[in-house]
Structure formats: C-alpha cells, structure tokens
Automatic annotation (TrEMBL):
The keyword Transmembrane applies. The lineage of its organism: Eukaryota, Metazoa, Chordata, Craniata, Vertebrata. It is a single-pass type II membrane protein. It is found in: Golgi apparatus membrane. Its EC number is 2.4.3.9. This is Lactosylceramide alpha-2,3-sialyltransferase. GO terms for biological process: lipid metabolic process. Belongs to the glycosyltransferase 29 family.
Length: 370
C-alpha cells in the first residue's frame, strides 16, 4: 500500500520554487545593473552644424511631400506578399473571439489560455481604434520616435511635432528633451515595466497602447484602467517597478493586437516558432521599436522613423538620448536579434517604404567626405 504524502508537502515545495524563482530574478536584475557601464557623456562626439542642418532639411522635405493614401501598406505587400496582412486590426476589439487565430499562441504572439481575462479587460475599454479626428483624416503622415542616442543634438523636435501621428516607446521621456524629440505624443506604446513612472509623461489626448507579455500584465492593465491599487503579490512578478497610476481616461487605453507581434516576428523577420522554455524567452521576440514600425504601417499612409540604430561597433556611444547607458549594454541582452531587425529596417529604407529622419539605420542624405 502506497503512503500518501501530506498536502502540506506539495504546498511547501511550491513555495520554495516560487521563492527560488523570485530570488533568481532579483540576482539577475542586480547583475544587469552592475554590468551596464555608464557612458562618459563628456566624451560624446559633437554633432557638426552642417550635419544638423542637413538632417533638419531632409526631415522637413519628408513632411512637406504629398501624402500618398495607402502607400506604405501597398509597399509592404509588394515586399512581403502574404506574410503581411493589410487587413490586420491594430488593436484588440470586443469581437476578438471571432478571430480564432489570435488564440493559437501564448503572449506576446497571441492570447492562448487568456480568453476570459481578455474578455473581462475589454469590458472596461470603450474604444478600440484611433480617435475619430484621426480616423477621418484622408491621409496620415506618421513617425515612430525611437529612443536612440543618435537623436542627441539634431534638434528635430519642431519637425516631429508636425506629424499627424507620433508614436513613442516605453518610458522614453519628452520632459527636458523637447528640442531633440519634440513633445507631441499621439501613442505611447509599452509593456508594464516600460510605462513611464512620471505622470508628466502622459498627455490628455494621447493613446496608451499596452503590449501584454505575461499573465500578470492583464491584471496590471486592469488595475490602472480602474485606478485601483496593484496587489503586493502581483508586483513580485514584474522584473522592475511598474507604474501604478496612469492619468488617462479608459477611452484612451488600447491593447495591441498580438497578431502585429506575430506578423513582425514569425512572418516578416522569419524567426522560428516560439518554443516553451522553463525560464526566459527564446531569442525571437522583436523589440518594441520594430513592432511599432510594423504597427505604423497598419495605421498610417506614410511612415517615418527617428532615433533608431544600434551601432555596436561604437560601444562607448550613448545607447539612449535620455540616460548614460553605453551602446555596449546591448551586448548583455539576449531577447532580441538586433542584427536581423537592422537588416529589415535597412531594407524598408532602401526600398523607399519608410524614411529614416535621423539616419541611424541608413542615411539617405549623408555623403561621406573624401
């Protein structure tokens, strides 16, 4: 006769596993903080006035060019064929259960096993598209503003503010950096850990687009929409502090359609199918930046980007425009394939599908001095 182990044994084992996992997370985060060396900002290369003027002139020319309706969608279809779906909805709608494909994969590529949580969340969100004023616009010029240090000193802010739609990423600030990056924000696209902690980075008319990666992300977005306090146990499952108060109305929240991430990663970038792992992610998750560019091709008619480009051959240059991290910090990350993404963006720029205003990916207006 087999002896039954007491139920407390299983509970105790589970608790030990949870503590061990949380401990490993903490150690990993501490390790990253020590490994990421600060850049010496006094050694940043001075941006020549001639280059600044040339960059500004190019950006103004792009913005002043006639807007071509549906141009970027047609071009994406030309380049990628059936891998790019013109009819993909940018944000999740309440009729999501009618689209079975969305439940094939787990987050961030789909909502497998999360249909009920998603349904409850959508009941709180009254709108699921661009605001009416933008929807009705015949042709939309859009720009995705990356977080790259390449924006330092280019003073593109006044041009960026003139685009119809300005998409910003994660916690990238505008306060204190408006000369270089502007302050107009139509869309702030982020996952929970990337959301700005400062309430000054949220604007009354901007959309907050949430990218959901894991189970607790659903609870987080529900808490911030309802303006509720985040439970202590839930905070333990985020790898850094998350914003708990986001001063925008429920009608301004959107949930990114995971089909956009799936299209970016599996179809366009041709990453392998996601495989289950005991810990961490496979190296097949696209960055928020490149995902935002694909999103922009679905939302807009003409698409530009600024602040993109990781030059790993210059490890001592600034990684971001707003902090002291060096480019060398990118060598520590294992989630994203920067090389593949760069080749993809270079292809879009060289083919004329999108415009690179800051020249960090491929500078079409630069001339090498002899």
């Amino acid at each position: 006769m087999k002896m039954k182990r007491p139920s407390g044994f299983l509970k105790g084992t589970f608790k030990h596993v949870v503590v061990m996992v949380i401990g490993l997370c903490f150690i990993y985060i501490i390790k990253l903080s020590f490994d990421s060396e600060d850049c010496d900002m006094t050694r940043i290369h001075y941006v020549k006035t001639a280059h600044v003027k040339k960059t500004q002139k190019f950006a103004e020319k792009v913005l002043q060019a006639p807007c071509r309706p549906s141009f970027v969608k047609k071009e994406m279809s030309r380049l990628f064929g059936e891998k790019y779906n013109i009819n993909t909805s940018s944000f999740i709608r309440k009729d999501i259960n009618a689209h079975e494909d969305i439940f094939k994969y787990e987050p961030p590529f789909g909502f497998h096993k999360f249909s009920e949580k998603l349904k409850d969340l959508l009941e709180l969100l009254p709108e699921y598209d661009l605001p009416e004023g933008l929807q009705s616009k015949h042709c939309k010029h859009c720009v995705v503003v990356g977080n790259g240090g390449v924006l330092h000193g280019l003073e593109l802010g006044y041009v960026l503010n003139q685009f119809d739609i300005v998409i910003r990423l994660n916690s990238a600030p505008v306060q204190g950096y408006t000369d270089d990056v502007g302050n107009k924000t139509t869309i702030r696209m982020t996952y929970p850990e990337g959301a700005p902690l400062s309430q000054h980075e949220y604007y009354p008319d901007s959309l907050f687009v949430a990218v959901l990666f894991k189970s607790v992300d659903f609870g987080w977005i529900q808490a911030v929409v309802k303006n509720e306090t985040l439970p202590l146990w839930m905070r333990l499952f985020f790898w850094k502090q998350v914003a708990e108060k986001i001063p925008v109305m429920p009608k301004q929240f959107r949930i990114l359609n995971p089909a956009i991430i799936k299209e970016t990663a599996l179809d366009i970038l041709e990453y392998p199918e996601p495989r289950p792992k005991f810990w961490g992610w496979d190296k097949n998750i696209p960055t928020i930046g490149v995902t935002a560019i694909v999103l922009a091709t679905h939302l807009c008619d003409e698409v530009s980007l600024a602040g993109f480009g990781y030059d790993l051959s210059q490890p001592n240059t600034p990684l971001h425009y707003y902090d002291n991290l060096c480019m060398a910090a990118m060598n520590e990350q294992t989630m994203h394939n920067v090389t593949t993404e760069t080749k993809f963006l270079q292809k879009l720029i060289k083919e004329g599908v999108v415009k690179d205003l800051s020249g960090g990916i491929f500078c079409t207006y630069c001339k090498k001095s002899s």
